[in-house]
Design brief:
The chain has five helices and five strands, in the order αββββααβαα. The longest helix has 10 residues. The protein is globular and about 35 Å long.
């Protein structure tokens, strides 16, 4: 398996956003993905919309640090987020309840999963 391209993963995350599941959320999430193709993005979830920007935000409610493969595993349901946290695969700084809510915000299509995994 080739290493996941984080920028491509972020595009897929943006496409797979399920706005109905974000009702009532008003959060900013800093996502730092490690690895050769890693990067930093911040996601603003407000009024049932998702806005993903390249870089970092001082306004983030929570900062998530992990590698891209584990992030993909969590959003497609292959990796239990609590287990990943306790295994040290995910490091959180800030409001952890936001991360719990985020789990239901994405539904990655089979087509996109094949695209990202090669």
């Amino acid at each position: 398996m080739t290493e996941i391209n984080s920028a491509q993963l972020i595009e897929i995350v943006n496409r797979s956003f399920v706005k109905e599941n974000s009702a009532g959320m008003n959060n900013c999430v800093q996502l730092n993905l490690a690895g050769a193709n890693g990067g930093n993005w911040y996601m603003t979830i407000k009024n049932q919309t998702l806005n993903i920007q390249d870089g970092t935000s001082e306004d983030a409610n929570v900062e998530i640090n992990m590698n891209a493969e584990d992030f993909l595993g969590i959003i497609v349901g292959e990796l239990d987020p609590l287990r990943a946290f306790f295994m040290g695969k995910v490091k959180l700084i800030g409001d952890q309840s936001v991360v719990i809510k985020m789990i239901a915000l994405f539904k990655v299509s089979e087509e996109d999963l094949k695209l990202i995994r090669g």
